[in-house]
Amino acid sequence: MSGGASRPIVLVGMMGTGKSIVGEALSRRLEIPFVDLDEVIERRDGRSVQEIFAEEGESRFRQLESQSLGDILASTDSPFVLATGGGVVTISENRDLLIDSPSSVVLLEASIDELARRLAGDRSRPLLAGDVHTALQSLWTAREAQYREVSDVVVSTDGHTVDEVADLVIKATVKAA
Ligand code: S3P
């Protein structure tokens, strides 16, 4: 399928829900550019997400994240796929940007058990220090309403392959648009 997307698709959701890999699949299928918010932040800042957290803390990371999100959403009228970082919805300015943008905002969901399995042993995510299941559960409790506030569509990823999730996103966004 090509040329089917008339507006940007923004993927939100917890760490480990597959926002980046599903975003890449959508980009190939719809033949539109893929942008990964964490990668944009890292490229602009010259440091990894981990280094930014370690050297200047989460609040500095959130500032950089908000700047990049605003710039990306304002950058073009052409459709693209954007994979955001899991905490983008925690900042009210970001939620407003997402709600006000002409994008289809898609929440990718997975059970906490499944996310904990996928992320076991992950060393790249500063907010998963300690017990991964406990950390994910408390982040989800704090964020669930924020994810739902910004999302137009919710897609469950449990038990689905990346291609199946991409299909579900396309059905829920492009074909409905
Ligand atoms: C974060 C998620 C990460 C990254 C950073 C903070 C979060 O992105 O932005 O480690 O607060 O949930 P992914 O969701 O792509 O892992």
Number of helices: 7
Helix content: 40-55%
**Helix/strand structural class:** alpha/beta
Low-confidence stretches: none
User: What is the overall silhouette?
Assistant: globular
What average pLDDT do the residues reach? 94
The ligands bound in this entry are: shikimate-3-phosphate
Radius of gyration: 15 Å
Total number of beta strands:
5
Helix-strand string? EHEHHEHEHHEH
**Oligomer, anyone?**
single chain
Strand order of the largest sheet: 2-3-1-4-5
- Beta content: 5-15%
The biggest beta sheet is recorded as:
5 strands, parallel
- Cα separation of the termini: 15 Å
Question: What report would you give on this structure?
Answer:
The protein has 177 residues and is an alpha/beta fold. Helices cover 54% and strands 12% of the residues. It is built from seven helices and five strands. It has helices at residues 19-30, 37-45, 49-75, 92-100, 112-119, 132-150, 162-172, and strands spanning 9-13, 34-36, 81-83, 104-109, 153-156. A five-stranded parallel beta sheet has the order 2-3-1-4-5, sandwiched between helices. It is globular. The structure holds shikimate-3-phosphate. Shikimate-3-phosphate is lined by residues 15, 19, 38, 49, 85-87, 125-127.
